[in-house]
Amino acid sequence: MSLYRATFVLRPELEEEEKNSTVKEVQDFVVSQNGKIENVESGIQKFAFEVDKTNKGFFVSIVFEVDASKVHQIRQFLIKKRGIIRAMLTRQEIHLKNKDKGGKKDERIESGSPDRESHPRS
């Protein structure tokens, strides 16, 4: 199972109950796909530009573990869910901590595709 982050934006005019209900439905759907919720963060933020005739939204970010074969279903659920005006699903980097001669050393493991290379812009 890989680690993913679903970030989506809800309409700011939704009632608090509707926002909570939508977040709960997304979490329940991830769990129904045999996923495990790691972290949930939320809050209202302003947009850099207008989206669907509004300049702010209720951002929600859910970090979860799920099998890669289930990602497409989760993405489709987010796209079709009423009240969500933008959604993004990304694969997360995993950090492991190792002891190295009395100190701690961070080791990064990219969970992306191993055959892709990152090239800096010139």
TrEMBL record:
GO biological process, alphabetically ordered: translation
Keyword RNA-binding recorded: yes
Coiled-coil region(s): none
Ranges where the record places region Disordered: 95-122
InterPro entries noted in UniProt: Ribosomal_bS6, Ribosomal_bS6_sf, Ribosomal_S6_plastid/chlpt, Transl_elong_EF1B/ribsomal_bS6
Molecular function per GO: rRNA binding; structural constituent of ribosome
Keyword Signal assigned: no
Keywords (A to Z) from UniProt: Ribonucleoprotein, Ribosomal protein, RNA-binding, rRNA-binding
HAMAP family: Ribosomal_bS6
Similarity-based family: Belongs to the bacterial ribosomal protein bS6 family.
Protein's name according to its UniProt entry: Small ribosomal subunit protein bS6
